[in-house]
Amino acid sequence: VNGGLRQSMAWLHTWTGLVFGWVLYAMFLTGTASYFRPEITRWMEPETGRPAAVGVSAQAAIAYLQRAAPDARSWTIQLPDERASVIRVAWRHDPKPGETRAQRQALAEVNRAALDAATGAVVRPRDTRGGEFFYRFHFQLHYLPVLTGRWVAGLAAMFMLTAIVTGVITHKRIFKDLFTFRPAKGGQRAWLDAHNVMGVLALPFHLMITYTGLVLLMGQLMPWGVVANYQSPAGYFAAAFPHAPEPQPSGRAAPLAPVAPMLAEASRAWGGGRAWIVTVRSPGDAAAIVEVERRSGDEIAYRSGSIGFSGVSGARIFQAPPEGPASQTDNVMGGLHMARFAGAGLRWTYFLCGLAGAAMTATGLVLWTVKRRRDLPDPTRPHLGFRLVERLNIGTVAGVPAGMAAMLWANRLLPANLASRAAWEVNAMFLTWGAAVAWACLRPARRAWAETLWAAAGLVALTPLVSALTSPRNLARSLADGDWAMAAFDGTLAALGAGLAVCAAKASAGRAT
Amino acid sequence: VIPVLLLAFSGVGGLCLAMARHQPAALGRSATPRESALLRAGGIVGLGASFGAAGAGSGWDVGAVAWCGAVMTAALALTLVASYRPRWIPGLAAGAGVAGALLAALG
Fold it and tell me: Does this complex have an ipTM over 0.90?
């Protein structure tokens, strides 16, 4: 590789990394948290129990729906697995004439319920988006129209891919420097070592996660194949993701056949795979159809197909055809990204690699200022661009974890009857992030690093304490109940808080930037 | 997962010890070319054994993913040891190799 190429690649690496660096850091952290989406949801709904042997069958959920929404157009039942403690049911009616999209969305928020998986009792968790928020944010951001957010996230991911490839080309001693981190050398050397270690040792993960993330957004980012071959997006979806046909209601009432034999038959057809989402269309009508979707995560591929039954006779009337090679490749890539197939051990390695990605992004952002500080004409009065990057770095690197913890605090501290409570939990995250940026702008840089990092460490590490004081979720009870996921949740927050405290202590000692 | 991780750690440990840059800090001296070649071979054996344990334990599709994750995690952990306690690398890598092999054989 000649010097000219390496130099232009270094330029590209520096600037592609910087432009979306702050967004990418937030995407990495929230995306990494999403590997524990069901656990975060369960923590944020302390009214729900812990996963137990599922004592309630899908039939009990149907009995509930027959009482709660006998005349609905469709019922949806999400069966729990070993990470969830409730069965979630929802129902939809035919749209009324003149009903707006917003009204339908508001109805969808109301027409749902959660049933305890062990007892079948209705549970009413507090109004929260749970782990779903971090998951949504990491690919569509927030306060933006969904499609706009996905464009920004998609662009950020493309810049990330460019930064990864150019970073590999730029790195002069990728093999010689393997396993090398020299914190004692301080300054630029130590930051570059840290950046390289996080980037190179977890490189397969970074490449995989960025590329497959783009593949998941592919339909939006590169729509031309679909546009050229299908009359409408709906035609493409019908062809790519086949589902049981939509029944035409006959108007004749007929009782719904028992679903247990349908679930058993579906499981046999999948070689022992588990049912996940059961949809009943036109329940109570002679034309009713029951569609059973396989649990996402039974295989590496995340869409596992469905089987449809007549709701009256129970006979199998539909089975998703095997996927073509391209569709299957897409499906496996999406599955690799989401890691729903991963058992506990593998999920933790995904989590650690995701943290390495966040650390790589953060150290890269810090390097931008470390490298340039020496070359400033007057280091006490840096130019506007330098100040902007430096302040955004401080406010974001410390502010995002602080904000994520603030959302968990808000989940425990906001009054239960607050209007738009779930939205305020989310606002708490961005208010905290914004406050960190504002604080960084008002204080001398080095002190701002220490202060915001200490604040983030405190918010993260004290979250289990706030929970213990305000809700039934506390470490002692989790341990006594053998609820290892919730005990690990507290332990992980304490460990992450300790990690932030180490960074804060180093910044206080004057080693940062 | 535990034996896969332990064997991966012994593997990256062997590869690290085979590198001239890490030998003075980790071994207290430079290794001869022959020793370095042996360490490198040992590292590759450790990584291979880790792959075998992952495939045998979780099937070759999920196992391959799990192995990649284990190698990355082990490499990050090893870098921490190399930075702060380099003299521990030989003992930890050997111990992880023996423990991982025993666990894999038993499990």
Answer: yes
